[in-house]
Amino acid sequence: MSSVIQGFPKNFLWGGATAANQLEGGYNEGGKGLSSADMIAYIPKEQRSKEISHAMEITSERIEKILSGEFEARFPKRDGIDFYHRYKEDIALFAELGFKVFRMSLHWSRIFPNGYDEQPNEEGLQFYDDVFDELLKHGIQPLVTLSHYETPLGLTQKYNGWVSREVVEHYTRYAETVFRRYKDKVKYWLTFNEINVITISAFTGGGVVVDRLDNKLQGMYQALHHQFVASSIATKLCHEIIPDAKIGCMLARMETYPNSCNPEDIRKAQLANQMNLFFTDVHARGEYPKFMDRYFEENNIVLHKEDGDDELLKQYTVDYISFSYYMSITVAENPEGGNEAAGNLVAGSVMNPYLETSDWGWQIDPIGLRVTLNAMYDRYQKPLFIVENGLGAYDKVEADGSVHDPYRIDYLRKHIEQMKEAIKDGVDLMGYTAWGPIDLVSMSTSEMSKRYGFIYVDQDDDGNGTLARSRKDSFAWYKQVIASNGEQL
Q1: For a 10 Å CB count at each end of the chain, is N or C smaller?
Q2: DSSP percent split of the chain into helix, strand, coil, nearest 5
Q3: Interstrand relation of 329-331 and 320-324 (parallel, antiparallel or unpaired)
C-alpha cells in the first residue's frame, strides 16, 4: 500500500493573511499610539525612485517634521481600509469564503501606545478580544503575528528601536500580556513578520533610524540579534502560558537560482540562499550557522551578546516555520547589460527568461514554491506554513460593478497545484493563507492600486472612495478551492 499522501490533509488550514498596519485604520482612536507604519507617506508613482519603491528608510529629521506638521503628505497606513470599524462585515465575508484560519497582526502600539508603557491600554486589548470573538463565532482560527512592521514610534524615539537591548524587555512584556489575555482564543502565533527585512529596511523591520547609527550594517544585525532573543523568550512564554498553542517564525523566502551553470553563478545563488535561510536557521536550529562567521568577519560586524543568549536560542526553537513566497530570483556573477530585473525586491537580480512577470515586475514561478518547500523541509524537518502568497495586480471594475480577475485565479491555481505536489513529495505543510484576501494598502508603496484581494475595496491611491466591499470572480473560485480542500482548482 502506498504511503504517498494524495491531496491536502483533512485538517489543512486554508485562509488569508493581512497586517494591522495595512488594513486596520483607526490610528488615533481607542488609545492607540503611533507606530513606524504611521510615518510612511504615499509617494505617487511618477515621483517614486527605485530605492523608495522598495521601502524607504526614514530619517530623524523626517520624523520630526511629520510630528510637527511641517511635512505634509498622505499617510495611507493610518487609515488602511477601516477594518477597525468594519471588522464584522469583513469577517463575515471571510466566513463566506470558508476560511479555517485568518492571519492578522496586533498593532503593538494599540496595546502599549509608546511601546515602553508599564501598563497596557485596555481599550486596545478589548478591540482584539472583539475581533477574536467574531472570528471564533464563525469557526475561524486566528493566526496572530506579534510584530508585523508595526514597531511603536515611542521605541524609535527613546531607543532607536531594536538596536537597543532594552526593547527586548518591552517586547517580552507585550508578548506575555497578550498570551495571558488571549490564551483561550488564539492557538497559532508568529513572533516577527519577515524577520529578514530588518536587514533590507531597518525602519520597516525594527523601527531603526539608520542615520542614528555609526555603522549601519552593525546596527541592523545587532537589532536582529535582539529580535532573535526576543523571539526565543516569546516562544518560552507561549509554551508556558498556552501549552496547547503553536508558535512559529516567519521569513520572506527568496528562492534564488543561478543564471547559468557557470560555477560562479551557482556559488552566487548558493550564497544568496544561505543568507536568506540564515534567519530560519537560528529560529529552527537554535544557533547561528557557521557561514555567518565569515560574513560577520568580512563586514566588521561584532555582535554583542549577553550571557545566556546562545543557550536561550538553543533551548527555545519554534514549533513551525512560516514564510511568504511571491516569486523566485535569478542572479549572475557577471550580468550582461540590459537584463536587470528592476521590479524584483532584490537589487542585482536578473530576468529569468522562462518566467512571466507581474504588473509590478515580480517574476511568477509556481514551481519555485515546490522547490522552496522541499528545500526548507529537507533542511529543518519541521512543519511548514505558507502564510503569504498572492498576485498584486491592477483590477478593473466593470460597469455592473463586477471585477474579472482570471490572472489572479491562474496565479493562485498554479501555486496551489505545486503545494499539492510538495505534499506528495513528503513535505509537512500545515496551511496556506493567501496574502491580502481583501484589498489593502501596499506595504512597500502605500498604494491601493496594487490589489491582491478576492474582495474589492472601493478606495484609490489618493484615498478617495466609499470603502464599499464587493466580491471579485476570484472570490467564488477560492471558496470552491477551500470547500473541496484543494481538489477543485
Answers
A1: N
A2: 45, 15, 40
A3: unpaired
Contacts of 81 (CB under 8 A, 6+ apart): 23, 25, 438, 439, 440, 441, 457, 459, 467
Whether residue 145 lies inside any domain: the answer is: yes
Report the alpha-carbon distance of residue 178 to residue 106 in Å, rounded. Answer: 9
3-state secondary structure of 13: strand
How far is residue 125's CA from residue 123's CA, in Å, rounded to a whole number?
Answer: 5
Alpha-carbon distances, residue 244 vs 128, 181, 184, 446 (angstroms):
20, 15, 10, 37
Is 128 inside a domain boundary?
yes
Prediction pTM value? 0.96
Question: What is residue 304's DSSP assignment?
Answer: -
Query: Does a structural domain hold residue 413?
Result: yes
Q: What is the CATH number of the domain that holds 162?
A: 3.20.20.80
Pairing type for strands 363-364 and 356-357 reads antiparallel
DSSP H helices, 40-120, are: 50-55, 60-68, 76-79, 83-97, 108-111
Distance CA 1, CA 85 (A): 53
Please provide the DSSP assignment of 439-459 as one string.
Answer: ----TTT--SSSB--SEEE--
Q: Residue 321 in 3-state DSSP?
A: strand
pLDDT tens digits, 75-97: 999 999 999 999 999 999 999 99
CA separation (Å) from 130 to 18, 32, 46, 101? 17, 16, 41, 16
Q: Indicate the helix (H) or strand (E) that contains 423.
A: helix 406-424
- The vertex-135 CA angle with 131 and 138, nearest 5°, equals 145
**Residue 9 is placed in which grid cell?**
490533509
Provide the domain limits for residue 450: 13-483
| Residue 388 annotated as catalytic | yes
- Classify residue 47 by its DSSP letter: G
Q: What is the pLDDT of residues 268-316, one digit of tens each?
A: 999 999 999 999 999 999 999 999 999 999 999 999 999 999 999 999 9
Res. 387: pLDDT tops 80? yes
E strand segments, 183-338? 188-192, 246-252, 256-258, 320-324, 329-331
Give the chain's domain count: 1
> Could you tell me if residue 433 is inside a domain?
yes
Dump pLDDT digits (tens) for 125-181. 999 999 999 999 999 999 999 999 999 999 999 999 999 999 999 999 999 999 999
Q: Residue length, the chain?
A: 489
| Selected catalytic residue, list 166, 388, 398, 421 | 388
